[in-house]
């Protein structure tokens, strides 16, 4: 569950601009602010089931966007590369660094 | 017009996964394969106006996605950085390189 929360936080971060304001509010309250479904339902004066359905649909949408655009996957790969590159840059190992930069370029 | 074609080619490249198959086909024929509106209309047995309207709507959608996700803008910034980093890596200027890698990281 923690892993899913973590993933949803990232997907929300990458794709929130593509959600409706209501979808975005529910997701932020549920995943970022740790509200329960019941608390969100009360806040918006709707049923708990309505909040649950909306969040489930939004989760599926975020996964669909990720399947199509891979922003989170690329971000993870880029982060790994950048960490290694920083180490190498401080070590002065430039030929290996050049290979990594080439790999980074392929991600775009 | 050439600049617009170039921009549309890039936007299409970044966001084509979010288009419908028909939108995607029309855009590919018009922007990548340089078909005329009339040729696409003939190919799909629809009116020239229908093709024109579809392409105009798709162009607006692509610009809207770019406004929200900035994939093309980030790609351009990343490309610039990568070009400079390659030069620096081959020159062995590591402290400047480290600053650039930090800048690259901020784009994610």
Structural write-up:
The structure is a homodimer of 108-residue chains. Chain A is mostly helical and 108 residues long. The first copy, chain A, is 83% helix and 0% strand. The first copy, chain A, has helices spanning 2-15, 21-32, 37-44, 48-69, 71-91, 94-106. At the A-B interface, helix 4, helix 5 and helix 6 of A face helix 4, helix 5 and helix 6 of B.
List keywords for this structure.
homodimer, 108 residues, mainly alpha
Describe the SSE topology.
2 copies of one chain form a homodimer.
Chain A: H1 2-15, H2 21-32, H3 37-44, H4 48-69, H5 71-91, H6 94-106
Helix pairs in contact in A: 1-2, 1-4, 2-4, 3-4, 5-6
* Biggest interface between chains: A-B, 23 and 24 residues
Shape designation of chain A: elongated
Distance from N terminus to C terminus of chain A (CA atoms, Å) equals 31 Å
Radius of gyration of chain A: 19 Å
Low-confidence stretches of chain A: none
What's the short version?
The structure is a homodimer of 108-residue chains. By secondary structure, the first copy, chain A, is an all-alpha fold.
């Amino acid at each position: 569950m923690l892993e899913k929360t973590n993933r949803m936080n990232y997907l929300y971060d990458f794709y929130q601009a593509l959600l409706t304001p209501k979808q975005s509010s529910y997701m932020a309250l549920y995943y970022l602010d740790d509200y329960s479904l019941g608390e969100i339902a009360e806040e918006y004066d709707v049923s708990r089931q309505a909040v649950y359905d909306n969040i489930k649909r939004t989760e599926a949408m975020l996964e669909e966007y990720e399947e199509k655009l891979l922003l989170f996957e690329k971000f993870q790969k880029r982060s790994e590369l950048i960490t290694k590159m920083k180490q190498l840059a401080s070590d002065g190992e430039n030929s290996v660094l050049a290979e990594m930069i080439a790999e980074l370029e392929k991600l775009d």
